[in-house]
């Protein structure tokens, strides 16, 4: 076994997250799929840091976590605001700009 | 599981992947993939969140076996502790009942998305598998030295070389907190309208009529709320009639209506002795009202 397997696992998780973003209609679940994609990228960064024998990859994963936390806070607040205005958390109902 | 992890950490001293780490990977990797698949396939959004917790915990243990101990515990505390609780909180507030609809707004979108995802997975996995065949693993850092792979070395880097990005991320967190407060604020409470504002609105025509609806004619001749109010010319005010009572049994209150509108037989002083046949009311309230009328006439 080589650390490449971790990269393959990360790629698989990323693809699953991307498919989830495309097929799910609930905005909160779409957001969770985005979190899954961020996590898979974190796994990639940590694996590269381990292959390189340095710590810079881990620092980058750390910053990704910080940005993900900020993104979750703002995104969930937006979802709550949309839910308060339209009484729905489905992305299909947020189509006001379409017409 | 913990024994396997400890073995993985102790055995990965050289630049090679130890057997313990391989065992841990083949347990944790499928668990992570199963959690991810369960998340996108679960119909209920709360179940999706719980599947994602499984994926994140597996990833945290994979970080630990890769000697990223600080990030592993940060993953457990921040992601499964804070972020997933935030997700569950919002799900319980907003999206819990709205489980995904089976209606496809775009025809064939799910099939196309699944095919695209499979294609992307095959593409990336074969690319990585073919390009990274002989990766040379560097010697791992000593996690117990100050410059090593533990939290100490990470902190040395973050507060040294990456100090400016760290301060930028602090600014980002403050902006995110303020933005979330702004977005989730419901816009203040509306003050109640005063009587003067209500009167002015009524006479500007923002309501249906300038005066309130007439009440029922309770104390005119009877004490039943089914009794309609009378207009100054003696006719029945139609807005004082309750729509429910009116639609329920107009025939039932025929006598009361006739009595109030003045077309029925008059109440006489001898009502208690010999009740008039035409004015006998079927309901108890009507009888009481009639008796009150009779007593008033006697007085």
TrEMBL record, chain A:
Give the enzyme's main class according to its UniProt record, as a single word.
Answer: translocase
Give a GO cellular-component term.
NADH dehydrogenase complex
Q: Please provide, alphabetically and separated by semicolons, the GO molecular function terms listed in this UniProt record.
A: NADH dehydrogenase (quinone) (non-electrogenic) activity; quinone binding
Write out the catalysed reaction.
a quinone + NADH + 5 H(+)(in) = a quinol + NAD(+) + 4 H(+)(out)
Q: What is its main location?
A: membrane
In Gene Ontology terms, what is a biological process of this protein? Answer: ATP synthesis coupled electron transport
Identify its membrane topology class.
Answer: Multi-pass membrane protein
Stored Pfam families: Oxidored_q2
Q: Where are the transmembrane segments?
A: 6-23, 28-49, 61-83
Q: Where in the cell is it found?
A: Cell membrane; Membrane
Keywords (A to Z) from UniProt: Cell membrane, Membrane, NAD, Quinone, Translocase, Transmembrane, Transmembrane helix, Transport
EC number(s) stated in the UniProt entry for this protein: 7.1.1.-
User: What family is reported?
Assistant: Belongs to the complex I subunit 4L family.
- State the function annotated in the UniProt record: NDH-1 shuttles electrons from NADH, via FMN and iron-sulfur (Fe-S) centers, to quinones in the respiratory chain. The immediate electron acceptor for the enzyme in this species is believed to be a menaquinone. Couples the redox reaction to proton translocation (for every two electrons transferred, four hydrogen ions are translocated across the cytoplasmic membrane), and thus conserves the redox energy in a proton gradient.
Q: How does it assemble?
A: NDH-1 is composed of 14 different subunits. Subunits NuoA, H, J, K, L, M, N constitute the membrane sector of the complex.
Name by which UniProt lists this protein: NADH-quinone oxidoreductase subunit K
From TrEMBL, chain B:
An annotated Gene Ontology molecular function? NADH dehydrogenase (ubiquinone) activity
Q: Where in the cell is it found?
A: Cell membrane
Please classify the protein's predominant subcellular localization into one broad category: membrane
One GO CC term, this protein: plasma membrane
Q: Which domain of life is it from?
A: Bacteria
Membrane-crossing residue ranges in chain numbering: 24-42, 49-66, 72-91, 111-132, 162-183
Q: What is this protein called?
A: NADH-quinone oxidoreductase subunit J
Q: Which organism does this sequence originate in?
A: Tamaricihabitans halophyticus
